[in-house]
Amino acid sequence: MGCSSHLDSIKGVQIWLSSNVWLFLVRGKKLHKSILCRGEVLLLGQCCGSGGALGGSGHGAGAEEGQVAAPHFMQPCPQGLSIVVGADGCPFPTVTLLMQPKPENAITIAVSSRALFRMEEEQKIYNEQGVEAYVKYQLDHENEPFLPGAAFPFVKALEAVNTQLRELYPDSEELFDIVLMTNNHAQVGVRLINSINHYDLFIERFCMTGGNSPIGYLKAYHTNLYLSSDAEKVSGAIEEGIAAATIFSPSKDLEVSEKQLRVAFDGDAVLFSDESEQIVKAHGLDMFFEHEKAHENNPLAQGPLKGFLEALGKLQKKFYSKGLRMECPIRTYLVTARSAASSGARALKTLRSWGLETDEALFLAGAPKGPLLRKIRPHIFFDDQMFHVEGAKEMGTVAAHVPYGIAQKHKRPLQEKQPQNSK
Fold it and tell me: Distance (Å, rounded) from C-alpha 340 to C-alpha 319?
């Protein structure tokens, strides 16, 4: 492959290094070498032959410093781009570099820093000592990675799906794109980046608003789902028409799949509107059953997370089209308090009318959801009622509260304290 013809097409692209590498630069007739550290960003420059500096050129066999290097050019690979540093036999690694999908093509998941990582100690310092002490603590500890938070297994599962999608569709940008959306100060960014690199997460887009609410940026980032530990910010996102939920850490650890993303949804006021719940609250269950039977063939209006289920289904179909339905790394569940015989048909017919489906539909007729969720072991479960969120948490499930619909007028106080400056 010619140097200039290939490299001109990627000139100016920024790439992230997934491990420490030697970088060889040719300037004039001299060879310069340096170490680029894992996590650094490299800007692709000019072709070696034009005298510019380009990451990815290596020295030829037996080349010494000061000699002209025989460059090794960038080659396309299934997972993005790779840089070969060094000639055959030289002890330099090949680095796989994943290209960031365009936001308009990706399924964008925005997570807050306190959803992704455990930051209780830092939040305590902020609440008790103020922002200056908080920032100083973060700077003093920026080389200490945060512990994983409630959303961490979910994010890891998203990236596992991306890996399989890239293997099947090397050129596709229909991938999950995780954005860190936080009102943290920019000085805290180094510790966040160090933590992300420590756990080998691929999170390239940050929004750090320095104490201001990040909600106004969600649409600009093409957000499909926003997860935060701050109930007030989540409510603000819902009001902006963005799928959002307040995520809670479970009371106990429960092992989840590392290869298959599992997402469980409640039906009413989550996937569907709260139309039916309004009937229950106003007129009771008997009237609800009559209403559902009479309107069985009338689809329910969409709820706040319908679009996210639709996005998951779109990616599932990419695996189905390759004959991999049974091996699909995404599995979805409808877990509803509805009864199957008396009110289940309308829920299923509504999904069908949207061209959507869930892999499993579980109608509990009012029974607790926690024990069943423990069997499913989803990475996240969405529900509009804190009663079910708390039940899921107690059984070890990461649960997320969707503050939407009539149930919010009847909700109990949240069981987890929401700090004023939740990140």
Answer: 30
Residue 296 CB-half CA count within 13 A: 10
Listed in order, strand segments (DSSP E) in 337-387 are 360-363, 380-383
> Over the stretch 207-221, which tens digit does the pLDDT of each residue have?
999 888 999 999 999
Mean pLDDT across 375-404: 96
Mean pLDDT of 80-89: 38
Secondary element (H or E) of residue 191: helix 189-198
Mean pLDDT, residues 251-256 taken together:
91
pLDDT, position 93:
38
Residues of the chain within CATH 3.40.50 domain(s) are: 107-248, 261-409
Do 377 and 399 form a contact (C-beta atoms < 8 A)?
A: no
The CA–CA distances, whole Å, from 29 to 26, 85, 139 equal 7, 18, 42
Other CB atoms within 10 Å distance of the CB of residue 52:
15
Answer whether 300's CB lies under 8 Å from 346's CB.
yes
Distances from the Cα of 361 to the Cαs of 75, 78, 145, 146, 346, in angstroms? 45, 36, 39, 36, 13
d(CA 407, CA 412): 10
Q: What is the pTM of this model?
A: 0.75
Cα-based distances in Å from 9 to 13, 49, 51, 170, 418 = 9, 16, 18, 17, 48
The position carrying tokens 């004023």 is 420
Q: What is the mean pLDDT of the chain?
A: 78
How far is residue 163's CA from residue 98's CA, in Å, rounded to a whole number? 10
Most confident listed range (27-31, 89-93, 186-190, 243-247): 243-247
> Residue 180's closest CA among 205, 210, 198?
205
CB of 158 closer than 8 Å to CB of 262: no
Find the helix or strand (DSSP H, E) in which 287 lies.
Answer: helix 285-294
For residue 105, the model assigns a pLDDT of 79
CATH of region 107-248: 3.40.50
Alpha-carbon dihedral of residues 321, 176, 144, 415, nearest 10 degrees? Answer: -100
* Tally of residues, the chain: 423
10 Å CB burial of residue 341 (0-12, 13-18, 19+) is exposed
Which of 2.30.230, 3.10.50, 3.40.50, 3.10.20 would CATH assign to domain 261-409? 3.40.50
Which residues are catalytically annotated?
Answer: 266
Q: What single-letter DSSP state applies at residue 382?
A: E
